[in-house]
Fold this protein.
Amino acid sequence: MNLSGEAVRELVQSRGAVLEDLLVVCDDLALPSGAIRLRAEGSSGGHHGLESIITRLNSEKFPRLRIGIGPFPPKKDASEFVLDPFQKGELKKIEAVVEKIPEICRMWLDQGIQKAMSAANSKEFIPDKGTKRP
Protein backbone atom coordinates (compact mmCIF):
# COMPACT_ATOMS: atom_id res chain seq x y z
CA MET A 1 0.00 0.00 0.00
CA ASN A 2 2.84 2.39 0.71
CA LEU A 3 3.85 2.11 -2.96
CA SER A 4 0.34 2.46 -4.39
CA GLY A 5 1.28 5.62 -6.28
CA GLU A 6 2.83 3.60 -9.10
CA ALA A 7 -0.38 1.65 -9.75
CA VAL A 8 -2.52 4.78 -9.48
CA ARG A 9 -0.28 6.68 -11.91
CA GLU A 10 -0.47 3.78 -14.40
CA LEU A 11 -4.27 3.73 -14.12
CA VAL A 12 -4.61 7.49 -14.56
CA GLN A 13 -2.24 7.52 -17.55
CA SER A 14 -3.73 4.47 -19.25
CA ARG A 15 -7.27 5.86 -18.95
CA GLY A 16 -6.38 9.45 -19.73
CA ALA A 17 -8.22 10.41 -16.56
CA VAL A 18 -8.20 13.80 -14.90
CA LEU A 19 -7.31 13.77 -11.22
CA GLU A 20 -10.70 15.12 -10.14
CA ASP A 21 -12.18 11.88 -11.53
CA LEU A 22 -10.05 9.77 -9.18
CA LEU A 23 -11.31 8.85 -5.72
CA VAL A 24 -8.73 7.34 -3.39
CA VAL A 25 -10.19 5.41 -0.44
CA CYS A 26 -7.79 4.73 2.41
CA ASP A 27 -7.54 4.02 6.11
CA ASP A 28 -6.41 6.75 8.50
CA LEU A 29 -4.75 6.27 11.89
CA ALA A 30 -5.41 9.90 12.81
CA LEU A 31 -9.20 9.50 12.65
CA PRO A 32 -11.14 7.63 15.33
CA SER A 33 -12.36 4.19 14.38
CA GLY A 34 -15.47 4.47 12.22
CA ALA A 35 -15.05 8.16 11.34
CA ILE A 36 -14.98 9.18 7.69
CA ARG A 37 -13.70 12.30 5.96
CA LEU A 38 -14.06 13.17 2.31
CA ARG A 39 -11.80 15.88 0.89
CA ALA A 40 -11.42 17.26 -2.63
CA GLU A 41 -7.65 17.55 -2.25
CA GLY A 42 -4.92 17.99 0.35
CA SER A 43 -1.69 16.73 1.80
CA SER A 44 -0.90 13.15 2.74
CA GLY A 45 -1.29 13.88 6.44
CA GLY A 46 1.59 11.45 6.99
CA HIS A 47 -0.21 8.56 5.25
CA HIS A 48 2.48 6.73 3.27
CA GLY A 49 0.08 5.43 0.62
CA LEU A 50 -1.22 8.94 -0.05
CA GLU A 51 2.37 10.24 -0.07
CA SER A 52 3.21 7.70 -2.75
CA ILE A 53 0.20 8.70 -4.86
CA ILE A 54 0.94 12.43 -4.47
CA THR A 55 4.58 11.87 -5.43
CA ARG A 56 3.77 9.75 -8.51
CA LEU A 57 0.98 12.05 -9.70
CA ASN A 58 2.98 15.15 -8.78
CA SER A 59 -0.21 16.62 -7.35
CA GLU A 60 -2.34 16.76 -4.21
CA LYS A 61 -5.41 17.69 -6.25
CA PHE A 62 -7.45 14.50 -6.17
CA PRO A 63 -10.35 13.49 -3.89
CA ARG A 64 -9.78 11.11 -1.03
CA LEU A 65 -12.12 9.30 1.32
CA ARG A 66 -10.38 8.54 4.59
CA ILE A 67 -11.75 5.88 6.94
CA GLY A 68 -10.71 6.12 10.58
CA ILE A 69 -9.05 3.14 12.22
CA GLY A 70 -7.61 5.00 15.25
CA PRO A 71 -6.78 5.80 17.87
CA PHE A 72 -3.26 4.61 17.23
CA PRO A 73 -1.63 3.28 20.43
CA PRO A 74 1.55 5.27 21.20
CA LYS A 75 3.91 2.33 21.79
CA LYS A 76 2.85 0.18 18.85
CA ASP A 77 4.38 -0.09 15.38
CA ALA A 78 2.03 1.46 12.80
CA SER A 79 2.35 -1.38 10.28
CA GLU A 80 1.62 -3.94 13.01
CA PHE A 81 -1.39 -1.95 14.23
CA VAL A 82 -2.88 -1.65 10.74
CA LEU A 83 -2.66 -5.41 10.22
CA ASP A 84 -4.10 -6.36 13.64
CA PRO A 85 -7.72 -7.57 13.72
CA PHE A 86 -10.30 -5.05 14.91
CA GLN A 87 -11.47 -5.26 18.50
CA LYS A 88 -15.13 -6.20 19.06
CA GLY A 89 -16.32 -2.59 19.64
CA GLU A 90 -14.27 -1.31 16.71
CA LEU A 91 -15.65 -3.91 14.35
CA LYS A 92 -19.22 -2.62 14.79
CA LYS A 93 -18.05 0.93 13.98
CA ILE A 94 -16.16 -0.25 10.91
CA GLU A 95 -19.12 -2.32 9.69
CA ALA A 96 -21.36 0.76 10.05
CA VAL A 97 -18.99 2.94 8.05
CA VAL A 98 -18.55 0.28 5.35
CA GLU A 99 -22.31 0.51 4.76
CA LYS A 100 -21.94 4.25 4.07
CA ILE A 101 -19.10 4.06 1.55
CA PRO A 102 -21.08 2.92 -1.53
CA GLU A 103 -23.64 5.71 -1.02
CA ILE A 104 -20.89 8.31 -0.61
CA CYS A 105 -19.24 7.07 -3.81
CA ARG A 106 -22.56 7.17 -5.70
CA MET A 107 -23.20 10.68 -4.43
CA TRP A 108 -19.70 11.78 -5.50
CA LEU A 109 -20.26 10.32 -8.98
CA ASP A 110 -23.81 11.61 -9.45
CA GLN A 111 -23.84 14.92 -7.54
CA GLY A 112 -20.21 15.99 -7.28
CA ILE A 113 -17.59 16.35 -4.61
CA GLN A 114 -19.15 19.27 -2.71
CA LYS A 115 -22.48 17.53 -2.15
CA ALA A 116 -20.73 14.27 -1.24
CA MET A 117 -18.39 16.05 1.21
CA SER A 118 -21.30 17.80 2.86
CA ALA A 119 -23.10 14.49 3.41
CA ALA A 120 -20.09 12.27 4.19
CA ASN A 121 -18.51 14.65 6.67
CA SER A 122 -21.77 15.06 8.57
CA LYS A 123 -22.20 12.99 11.72
CA GLU A 124 -25.87 12.56 10.78
CA PHE A 125 -25.17 10.91 7.40
CA ILE A 126 -27.25 7.77 6.98
CA PRO A 127 -27.03 5.99 3.65
CA ASP A 128 -30.19 5.59 1.61
CA LYS A 129 -30.33 1.81 1.33
CA GLY A 130 -33.26 2.03 -1.06
CA THR A 131 -31.33 3.94 -3.69
CA LYS A 132 -30.15 1.77 -6.54
CA ARG A 133 -27.96 3.03 -9.33
CA PRO A 134 -29.33 2.34 -12.81
User: Anything to note?
Assistant: Confidence is low (pLDDT under 50) at residues 129-134. The longest helix spans residues 88-111. The two ends are 32 Å apart (CA to CA). The longest strand covers residues 24-32.
